[in-house]
Amino acid sequence: MKVGIIGLGLIGGSMAIDLKRRGFASEIIGVESEPVNAAAALKIGLVDRITDFDQCVEKVDMVVLAVPVGVAVKMLPQVLDRFAAGQNGGPGKATAKVVIDVCSTKEQLARRVKYHPARRHYVATHPMAGTEYSGPWAAMSGLFDGHACIICDAEDSCPDAVAKVESLYDVLNMRTICMNSSNHDVHTAYVSHISHVTSFALALTVLDKEKDEKHIFDLASGGFSSTVRLAKSSPDMWTPILSQNRDNILHVMDTYIEKMNEFREAIAEGDEARVRSLIEEANRIRRIIR
User: Fold this and answer.
1) Are residues 23 and 161 part of one domain?
2) 71 and 169 share one domain
3) Overall pTM > 0.90
4) Looking at the predicted structure, is the pLDDT value of residue 93 above 70?
5) How many CB atoms sit inside 10 A of residue 254's CB?
6) Are 163 and 192 in a shared domain?
7) Of the residues 179, 197, 229, which one is the last residue of a structural domain?
8) Of 179, 197, 213, which one is at a domain's C-terminal end?
9) With 80 as the cut, is the pLDDT of residue 213 above it?
């Protein structure tokens, strides 16, 4: 199978490495808008060749959209337009091609192509793996091993397309979970998006304090580093995520602020019993995350 990966950053580049090494893809064709990133991806061997968008969609069996979700919303219909044109058999004929995205929000993508004539050749996916780093230099083998991948709205996709995508994620050693786009965006707001918002806010808080206290970073320990790690994440990626999942994220932020205020009131009042109770309640997360 020839796989085209549009966007050769952490996720796209890491997929490219293992799909080729593990035998899923006979050839990886890359598309990258940043010339420096494109040259780097080719030089370090993430892809077999670099081409433009049109040639990639024409020549591959599967297209992976590994671009920020704001770009994917515009690009996905363009890919499906070419599928609908029947590049492999004349206008209007069905194509065996498949396109997936790996974006962190899904509802707007789903709405954008809901009535597209080639909709069934699109499978919405979200591999729940990553780091705070970006660009082709961040790509690594094994990034997805042992993690979950969410497949959204599978009933709207062709069964053959879903089977091919499940095979792809099986090669990446991921377990697949199915849910609809709306539920996906709610869940990711809680388990991913709020973590990034709080990390960004904490980084801004400490950076503001550091203006007056020059040694604050000298005192930073592992706890601080792990908490603020996500603040290194790319604004190009996260700005459209926070915009597209706005309503869900605002709801989670409101709940988070309520919990912060509970801690603040208990600490301000010197209520150690209440502080202890809140911490013990939070410790229940151990049952879920080890």
Assistant:
1) yes
2) yes
3) no
4) no
5) 9
6) no
7) 179
8) 179
9) no
